[in-house]
Design goal:
This protein is α+β, with helices and mostly antiparallel strands. The chain has two domains: 152 residues, no CATH class; 62 residues, no CATH class. 31% of the residues lie in helices and 35% in strands. The chain is built from six helices and ten strands. It has a ten-stranded antiparallel sheet, with helices on one face. A hairpin with a 3-residue loop joins β3 and β4. The radius of gyration is 19 Å and the shape is globular.
Length: 229
């Protein structure tokens, strides 16, 4: 049985959870200098594998992707896939001059074409590739938390990237309580992201599982890619 959570209710739960995580982040900042001193004494490197997200890291910034689509600084191939009861597939070759691709969901399928020199054409094209905004709530839930861990630098899709692993199973007890309030008992988010120094995910693969109180489950699989040409 598919569990379909009301969008507004889901967003409200995520906002409440994010507010809780923000309080945790403030608390963590207060203890920051102590951990830095510990690292210095032990000789630990700030960019070593399995370093919790923080310390000025850009983290995962979906707005960076949307800005690159609207105002592309270079040529790249973009794709966004969401596999769920409400699937979305977007794909396009994007340059500073043109956008050529396609959009598909349960109710529509259409080509996407835009020329930057034609404002109406350009807006119509990039606005058809904004499906990634639909995973903003999922990323907000784990961003700047113990669930998102910096693993280290790695080349990906032609970009210098930082690899992050995502797993709500390794949150603190307080964070896990917040995750449970959003995802339900037994629900989780797990995946991997490779992002630029600005936070653009040049590759992101993540699974979300939402558990309803009636025992129903909704599984969502996300994939994002930006491939430099």
């Amino acid at each position: 049985m598919i569990f379909s959570m009301d969008g507004n209710a889901f967003l409200k739960r995520v906002v409440l959870a994010a507010a809780g995580l923000a309080l945790l982040a403030v608390s963590a900042c207060k203890s920051g200098p102590a951990s830095k001193n510990t690292d210095a004494k032990s000789g630990a490197q700030p960019n070593s594998a399995a370093t919790a997200q923080g310390g000025g890291d850009a983290g995962i910034n979906l707005n960076c992707v949307m800005d690159h689509i609207q105002n592309p600084p270079e040529a790249f191939h973009y794709s966004y896939n969401k596999e769920s009861s409400n699937p979305v597939h977007e794909e396009a070759d994007i340059t500073p001059q043109t956008i050529d691709g396609s959009f598909k969901n349960n109710s529509a399928s259409s080509p996407v074409h835009g020329v930057h020199s034609d404002a109406a054409s350009w807006q119509g094209a990039w606005s058809s590739l904004m499906g990634i905004s639909g995973m903003s709530s999922a990323i907000a839930l784990v961003r700047n938390s113990s669930a998102t861990v910096r693993e280290g630098p790695e080349k990906m899709n032609g970009y210098d990237a930082i690899k992050y692993s995502i797993d709500t199973a390794r949150g603190t007890d307080t964070e896990k309580s917040l995750y449970q309030s959003v995802l339900g008992t037994g629900g989780f988010q797990k995946g991997t992201a490779w992002v630029t120094a600005q936070g653009c995910p040049v590759k992101l693969v993540m699974d979300s599982e939402l558990h309803g109180k009636d025992g129903s489950v909704e599984k969502i699989h996300y994939e994002v890619a930006m491939v430099r040409k």
